[in-house]
Amino acid sequence: MRPRLATWLAIVLALLLGAERVASAAPALRVGSKRFVESYILAEIVTQLAKAEGATAEHALGLGGTAVVFRAIEDGAIDVYPEYTGTLAEAVVKNGAADLPALRAALAGRGLALSEPLGFENTYALAVTKALATKLGLSKVSDLAGHPELRVALSHEFVGRRDGWPGLAERYGLHPTTLSAIDHALAYEAIHGGDADVVDVYTTDAKIARFDLVVLGDDRHFFPPYDAVLVYRADLPKRVPAFERVLQRIQRSIDAAAMQRMNARAELDNVPFARVASDSLGASVSTAGSAQRPGLLGGTLEVIAQHGPRHVMLVAVSLALSTLLGVPLGILAYSRRRLGAVVLGVAGVVQTIPSLALFCFFIPLLGIGPVPALAALFLYGLLPIVRNTHAGLASIPADLREAAVAIGLSPAERLRHVELPLASRTILAGIKTSAVVGVGSATIAAFIGAGGFGEPISTGLSLNDVPTILEGSIPAAGLALVVEGLFLLLERALIPRGLQSPV
Amino acid sequence: MNALALERVTKTFAGRTVIHETSLAVKDGERLALIGPSGSGKSTLLRMILGLVVPDGGAVRVGDVVVTPATARDVRRRVGYVIQDGGLFPHLTARDNVTLVARLGGDLTPERLAARVAELAAIVRLDDARLDRHPRQLSGGERQRVGLMRALVLDPQLLLLDEPLGALDPIVRAALQEDLKRVFEALGKSVLVVTHDMAEAAYLAGTIAVMRDGAVLQHGTMKELVETPAHPFVAEFLGAQRSLTEALR
């Protein structure tokens, strides 16, 4: 690499990191949410209340499921997030006690505390279409026992939880012949489109009415109470006094009807979460027409302005790290054949880990946010670079390699002046692959709160809102094209002229 | 004093003996052609001199230095090596190919090096402008001239040439043979040139060593080889090289 270009790259990276640091000066209150609309809205309400009470607050949007977000608050990566007592009892405390005192006692041991109920319950339920209910006379979950032919489609989380499907099926003796797991946001589409007969719903879901579904009664009282509460770090009221006032204002203030209305506005009328939240707070902001979304183009530009710098930072920094380690590893793999097989093998195995799993793997070690995302993207980016560096060096014709030895160059001189330049095209192709893959993988980083173009994508997925998904996908695809273009220029600059195709 | 001495060297690769005990010397200022059929061990001997192949037995001396893995790099910088088709690095211009070794750890100043390149270009009769081309933009003959310049840049005491003209067409080859001979004579270097062409060997070198099956059969002048062949194969090999006059008869 020519020193001047390396210097420029270093400067650009430094600027990116600097801009990031300024942009993400740590707020006093970090609010987390799970990846569904109600959680977004509640978290947004907490965030706005905190700001209204004079604290700096930030909403880490949609951190994935219970495991991820709970891990995040245990590690102190977030301070507070909305949760349900039933979920805490089963998924987190795991002793089944769902009353508040028992939960508080269990959480206190982990440095966490629990608010009073927010005022509504959002429990799991099974739902069928009204047409089916009428035809088969279904009104209670126990009615399903006689109809194993009904196709059941359940959200991933519900399938796996003891207070979800396994327990429910046991209690009611349900043995459906067709059982599939799908994303919760898609369940309504599935039942509406006739691809499923029974789905699990949350009782405050806005779409229950929209899709004309009937909620089946829990006649054997299987589901524990799912009162909405806030889980927060026990030291939070001391650390951020404003939080005490946030609690005062939000506790017992939202009833089920209000929650369903807010869900419906966000989910069905496409009102932004922040707007839904501020409206519910009766803030001075007017609710008139201004809730209108910008068009796809406007929305996309907004997304680029808001999430572009973070996305570029994620890709650029992880790519720089992958390159800094990947090229030397590739050289090592080339010069020590045994070790090389091991290095290439390990890098290959890393590549087969699903990206979301790799992202989540780093949460216990590095918390949530951009740092674990960078670690995961860095590992992902290694293989193409290591492999191409190795391949580029190994493909140098034997006579040229020997010529470099025979004219008296030292191993280091051969590498620097002959072998790396000869392999430069292949190495750069590997870095380019890594960069383009990185642009795509970085969209998944939003699931662990790292931001970037994945944020609108994950929001759109939980809303099943195609325009919002596009607002994140289009800039990501665009960035991939920009990266391709940049590498064309980089090839001109870095690949020795004698190796470039004649013009 | 010998510029080069191979002393009872042997080499076995995977159970096959490619060099039987062989001794061969090039005196200061001597120009020796190593000739023989393919697979006779010529290239292996050449690679031994450069330390690219380590002999199983015996020793190789370049000047007064015994070639060992420890001394090999030093020896390589004191030996000029010309490879078939130039062996030039495609990513460097001809000029950078010539100066690479000198720039890395040589004691020539940039000005002296530039002057040296100009001097070498004149010696090998290469237009200075061609030096800023990349190897693939040069003809085969030009590449070989550049290869010769690269071998000469550190002013080595000994020149090794491995089939230097093997890849060239006959007309270019004839021209380059003349130029090589002129350069050898002008610079007075000790030379070991590997070839399989007897006429070329006789033209370029004062003495000839004939190899077969990993052994040197005879080392002498062309006259000695013709008049008193030490081995039937020497006579046979000489006889196999038909002259133009014979072909016209």
What does this structure look like?
- The complex is a heterodimer of chains A (503) and B (249).
- Chain A has 503 residues and is of the alpha/beta class.
- Chain A is built from 23 helices and ten strands.
- Chain A has three domains: 27-121 and 226-280, D-Maltodextrin-Binding Protein, domain 2, CATH 3.40.190.10; 124-215, Osmoprotection protein (prox), domain 2 (D-Maltodextrin-Binding Protein, domain 2); 296-499, MetI-like fold (Orthogonal Bundle), CATH 1.10.3720.10.
- In chain A, the strands form three sheets. Chain A has a five-stranded mixed β-sheet.
- Residues 284-291 of chain A have low confidence and may be disordered.
- Chain B is globular and about 50 Å long.
- Chain B has one domain: 3-Layer(aba) Sandwich (Rossmann fold).
- The model of chain B has no long low-confidence stretch (mean pLDDT 88).
- In chain B, the strands form two sheets. Chain B has a six-stranded mixed β-sheet with strand order 6-7-8-3-9-10, sandwiched between helices. In chain B, strands 2-1-4-5 form a four-stranded antiparallel β-sheet, with helices on one face.
- In chain B, 39% of the residues lie in helices and 26% in strands.
- The A-B interface holds A 399-400, 402-410, 413, 417-418, 421-422, 424, 496-499, 502 and B 50, 52, 73-74, 76-77, 81, 83, 87-93, 100-101, 104-105, 134-136, 150-151.
Which features would summarize this protein structure in a list?
heterodimer; A: 503 residues; alpha/beta; D-Maltodextrin-Binding Protein, domain 2; MetI-like fold; 3 domains; 5-stranded mixed β-sheet; 3-stranded antiparallel β-sheet; 23 helices; 10 strands; elongated; B: 249 residues; Rossmann fold; 6-stranded mixed β-sheet; 4-stranded antiparallel β-sheet; 10 helices; 26% strand; globular
